[in-house]
């Protein structure tokens, strides 16, 4: 039986970065199905067009804009074109991230450290600087952090540290952007996407992760989308500065 989805986001305008596949696509699809007008973006025009078509086929009001999050002009275009078309912004999900190396922190090249900071943290701050003047009262910002942010280690150590930074950024911006804007984060566990395929693609590693969860499975993009839609909606209207861990019960303390 098809699951019925509430329409909590009618009349809202939502931007999701890196939303042409994986968790970002899952989130933008869910926001759209809940009634929001959605702005799809990622680096490649062809991916943007394909995602917009998939969303429109489901009756979603979707509009596509190419945006490499570390490109200042792309970020400006994303915000200006959205405001030109819809007149406002209610929801921004900062989902783009990179994990360019699996080296230990002490052997990481400076260029890798710069890229991790730039894409995983700085680009979201700069995007929100552009977005802020256009945010409506009751708006909602959501960062996509990671379970790896709570215990950065191994092949994802430095990437994990940038995700830890997002936990702090969530608290700091919730204070700075309240009371009109709520700022929260979703911390996914392991989800078999292209990004995580170097981990979840290995059946032994995958089974090890499944065993570390209390629910004995990996997460789905739908699990992450449901959490993001909740935080974006008025159902979460008294929640700000929080990180919702969606990781099947994996340990999540700093
Ligand atoms: P994914 O399936 O590989 O999707 C990546 C998306 O990002 C694509 O749409 C890609 O499209 C776009 N993209 C990549 N670099 C970009 C950039 N610089 N600017 C704009 N768009 C960009 O990845 P995912 O697993 O869904 O990851 C999404 C988020 O979830 C990330 O923040 C990641 O850290 C987080 N996360 C993932 C997991 C997991 O297990 N998968 C766990 C915890 C947290 P183009 O190629 O067209 O740019």
From TrEMBL:
Belongs to the short-chain dehydrogenases/reductases (SDR) family. SUPFAM superfamilies: NAD(P)-binding Rossmann-fold domains. Gene3D superfamilies: NAD(P)-binding Rossmann-like Domain. This is 3-oxoacyl-[acyl-carrier-protein] reductase. One of its GO terms (biological process) is root hair elongation. It comes from the Eukaryota. GO terms for cellular component: peroxisome. It holds the Pfam family adh_short_C2. InterPro entries: NAD(P)-bd_dom_sf (IPR036291), Sc_DH/Rdtase_CS (IPR020904), SDR_fam (IPR002347).
């Amino acid at each position: 039986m098809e699951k019925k989805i509430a329409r909590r986001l009618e009349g809202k305008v939502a931007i999701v970065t890196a939303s042409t596949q994986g968790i970002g696509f899952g989130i933008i699809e869910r926001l759209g199905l809940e009634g929001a007008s959605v702005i799809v973006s990622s680096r490649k025009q062809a991916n943007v067009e394909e995602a917009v078509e998939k969303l429109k086929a489901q009756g979603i009001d979707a509009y596509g804009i190419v945006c490499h999050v570390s490109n200042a002009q792309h970020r400006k275009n994303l915000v200006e074109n959205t405001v030109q078309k819809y007149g406002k912004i209610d929801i921004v999900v900062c989902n783009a991230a990179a994990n360019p190396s699996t080296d230990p922190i002490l052997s990481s090249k400076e260029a890798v450290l710069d890229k991790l900071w730039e894409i995983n943290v700085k680009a979201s701050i700069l995007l929100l600087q552009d977005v802020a003047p256009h945010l409506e009262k009751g708006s909602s910002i959501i960062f996509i952090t990671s379970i790896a942010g709570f215990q950065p280690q191994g092949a994802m150590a430095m990437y994990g540290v940038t995700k830890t930074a997002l936990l702090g950024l969530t608290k700091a911006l919730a204070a700075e952007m309240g009371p009109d804007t709520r700022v929260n984060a979703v911390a996914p566990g392991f989800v078999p996407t292209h990004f995580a395929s170097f981990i979840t693609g290995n059946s032994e590693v995958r089974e090890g992760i499944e065993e570390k969860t209390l629910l004995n499975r990996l997460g789905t993009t739908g699990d992450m989308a449901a959490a993001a839609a909740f935080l974006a909606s008025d159902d979460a209207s008294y929640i700000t500065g929080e990180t919702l861990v969606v990781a099947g019960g994996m340990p999540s303390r700093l």
